[in-house]
Design goal:
The complex is a heterodimer of chains A (about 110) and B (about 120).
Chain A (H helix, E strand, L loop, with lengths): L4 E3 L2 E5 L4 E6 L6 E7 L6 E6 L5 E4 L2 E5 L5 E6 L8 E8 L7 E2 L3 E6 L1
Parallel strand pairs in A: 2-11
Antiparallel strand pairs in A: 1-3, 3-8, 4-5, 4-9, 6-7, 7-8, 9-10, 9-11
Chain B lengths: L4 E3 L2 E4 L5 E6 L6 E7 L6 E7 L2 E5 L7 E4 L6 E5 L8 E8 L11 E2 L3 E5 L1
Parallel strand pairs in B: 2-11
Antiparallel strand pairs in B: 1-3, 3-8, 4-5, 4-9, 5-6, 7-8, 9-10, 9-11
Classes of the chains: A mainly beta (about 110), B mainly beta (about 120).
Chain lengths: ~110, ~120
């Protein structure tokens, strides 16, 4: 099935560092969502984006809806060990309610 | 406030057997979605319902797969004659039935992990 390009695939960072990841699509989307998934669990919603250029924060997380509507970015500031997990972007558009997910960014934080 | 509930959490079955999973959405949500997630991949869309109507199905949903939502509340996903390639996490999500596509926010359950031996 179709998946969005998400980068980086994985990253190891030191506690306290900032993290950036992005997601790109060949299609235009109306909504971007960012989720975090822990092993053996379902994805948990972090941030929802509705408009091109929109910048939204949720605590230490900030996400942006790209102006081309084909990409989105997630930043995590001052990372902590519990930020470990897999982060997925998901986009929806073209008159459908389904979402297409990215391939995921695996984050590991070194204390 | 209960979130999306999926049962069972884990299912081990032998190849060729039929399995059925259940999903209970968030109570006020009238859209319900099924996704499949294999190891190392993001979730892939299978199908979705608005109330009891199944409105979209992915080509991933072979004829061995069937999903129902008979009363517009809970949903079941059945896989007949399971194959080893069906081993995956099956995720259910629900959302409010707003007509505004841009407000269609999906909340996921914890998933059912299927292992076909």
């Amino acid at each position: 099935g179709q998946q969005l390009n998400q980068s980086p695939q994985s990253m190891f960072i030191q506690e306290g560092e900032d993290v950036s990841m992005n997601c790109t699509s060949s299609s235009i989307f109306n909504t971007w969502l960012w989720y975090k998934q822990d092993p053996g669990e379902g994805p948990v919603l972090l941030i929802a984006l509705y408009k091109a250029g929109e910048l939204t924060s949720n605590g230490r997380l900030t996400a942006q809806f790209g102006i081309t509507r084909k990409d989105s970015f997630l930043n995590i500031s001052a990372s902590i060990p519990s930020d470990v997990g897999i982060y997925f972007c998901a986009g929806s558009g073209g008159g459908t309610y389904k979402y297409i997910f990215g391939t995921g960014t695996r984050l590991k934080v070194l204390a | 406030d209960t979130g999306v509930s999926q049962n069972p959490r884990h299912k081990i079955t032998k190849r060729g057997q039929n399995v059925t999973f259940r999903c209970d959405p968030i109570s006020e949500h009238n859209r319900l979605y099924w996704y499949r997630q294999t190891l190392g991949q993001g979730p892939e869309f299978l199908t979705y319902f608005q109330n009891e109507a199944q409105l979209e199905k992915s080509r991933l949903l072979s004829d061995r797969f069937s999903a129902e939502r008979p009363k517009g509340s809970f949903s079941t996903l059945e896989i007949q004659r399971t194959e080893q390639g069906d081993s995956a996490m099956y995720l259910c999500a629900s959302s409010l039935g707003t007509p505004d596509y841009s407000k269609n926010i999906q909340y996921f359950g914890a998933g059912t992990r299927l292992s076909v031996l």
